[in-house]
Amino acid sequence: MSNKSMKATYGGANDSYSKKIKIKSWVLFAWMVILTIICLLPIYILLINSTRSSVEIQNGFSMVPSGSFSENFKTLTTSSQFKSSINMAYGYKNSAIITISATVLTVFFSALTSYGIHVYDFKLKEISYTVILMVMMVPVQVTGAGFLSFMIDLKLHNTFWPLIIPAVAAPAVVYFMRSYMKSSFPLEIVEAARIDGSGEFGTFIKIAIPMMKPAIAVQSIFAFIQNWNNLYTPQMILLSVGVEKKTLPMMMASLTASDKIDYGVVYMAITLSVVPIIVAYVFLSKFIIAGVALGGVKE
After folding, report:
1. Contact, 215 vs 180, CB < 8 A?
2. What is the number of other CB atoms lying within 10 angstroms of the CB of residue 186?
3. Contact status, residue 178 vs residue 249, Cβ threshold 8 Å
4. Burial (CB count within 10 angstroms: exposed 0-12, middle 13-18, buried 19+), residue 1
5. Which ranges of 124-262 would DSSP assign to H, the alpha helix?
6. pTM of the entire predicted model
7. pLDDT one-digit tens code per residue, 116-169
8. How far apart are CA 243 and CA 69, in angstroms?
9. Residue 121: CA count within 13 A, CB half-sphere
10. What is the Cα–Cα distance from 280 to 229, expressed in whole angstroms?
């Protein structure tokens, strides 16, 4: 075969391969755009409805903003109709106290537990991990009545403690953390730290935590969203409290509990309640991206 024919053959093959790659790239790009629209559309509709009046919302769907944003905000924050059931300042404060505290406890102690199971060898290691996974299978609703009775006996109902302290035990987060450590945390690092004189807890804080930043960032987002949106447990524990001790989800529930619902105010309240979630995601997402670059020791 001559050089010209070989160039023509391989050149045609390369052109065909390049076209396939371009087509595949455009298909993937279009699919990502569609998924992005699907994810962002509910948020956009939420923002649009917060600018519309209750009558406009009931009359039908719209993609165009209206002019009732300030009126809905004023009604939500100053109207005597909602004064006894919702106060955004109290809601933000209470939800922030519970959510931030619970998220910190969840992430830290789950990382510590997964570190202990991954690094140390002991007789009941696999049994302990199996028990943790079994606890993960038990729904919260199954233990709700007993948990409430126990909190009443301890006189901790109507306080935030039952909503914060149990966050120490998060089986699903432990499972995720251990899976991450099995693939990205070589035990040689711990052995090297011990030779250098580092204590066990110091090794966890100074070496394990930085290497687990991607997993910690992901689970922090999930834990933050879960605790911020949690309605079941606060309604069960905060039995008889005023608006000054209610969380935002409890306030949102009270807005839709009345016979006459002002949908504009409801959408405004929901919009204000999701702002911290968006901020938390934007803040923590950069740690996920940056944490991917954190390397381990290659064998």
Report:
1. yes
2. 15
3. no
4. exposed
5. 125-136, 140-153, 161-164, 171-184, 187-195, 200-203, 209-211, 213-228, 232-237, 248-255
6. 0.83
7. 998 988 888 888 888 888 888 888 888 888 999 999 999 999 999 999 999 998
8. 24
9. 1
10. 13
